[in-house]
Amino acid sequence: MTSAENDVTLSELKKKMADFAKERDWDQFHSPRNLLLALVGEVGELSEIFQWKGEVPRGLPDWEDKEKQHLGEELSDVLLYLVRLSDICGVDLGKAALRKLEINAIKYPVNLCKGSSKKHDQIVNNNSSSIKDDVSHDSV
């Protein structure tokens, strides 16, 4: 079995979340506001895992399996609430994410940003005014 066969799509998650909520009669509670607040709470729980650890290396080589499992659960909670919120708000999250990547490619051209953590409004070039006019002021 290849990894592509194991991949889960946003559409599959959206359907599973909708079915999960419907089976429990939770649609009545899944307003955009309530879902956003639940998402923020889960991001807080995710943050607590890293709190006081300082910087950690990629792959978390020094973490115990139990810690990594807990991290996976909290990351999943964030993802599931985000998918549910986008569904309830009528936003195609996949398309929105791809569009945002395109916008950011314009805001952060490789030749000006490679290896730099500067925000787009700190990048000085001749095209900076056209970049600001072409894209929103949000960033990933």
Automatic annotation (TrEMBL):
One GO cellular component term: cytosol
Keywords annotated in UniProt: Cytoplasm, Hydrolase, Magnesium, Metal-binding
CDD domains to which the protein is assigned, alphabetical: NTP-PPase_RS21-C6_like
E.C. number(s) listed in UniProt: 3.6.1.12
Biased composition range(s): Basic and acidic residues: 131-140
SUPFAM superfamilies: all-alpha NTP pyrophosphatases
Superkingdom to which the source organism belongs: Eukaryota
Record flagged with keyword Cytoplasm: yes
Region Disordered: start-end pairs: 118-140
Gene3D superfamilies attached to this UniProt entry: MazG-like
Cofactors (names): Mg(2+)
Subunit structure: Homotetramer.
Identification of the protein by name: dCTP pyrophosphatase 1
Organism from which the protein derives: Artemisia annua
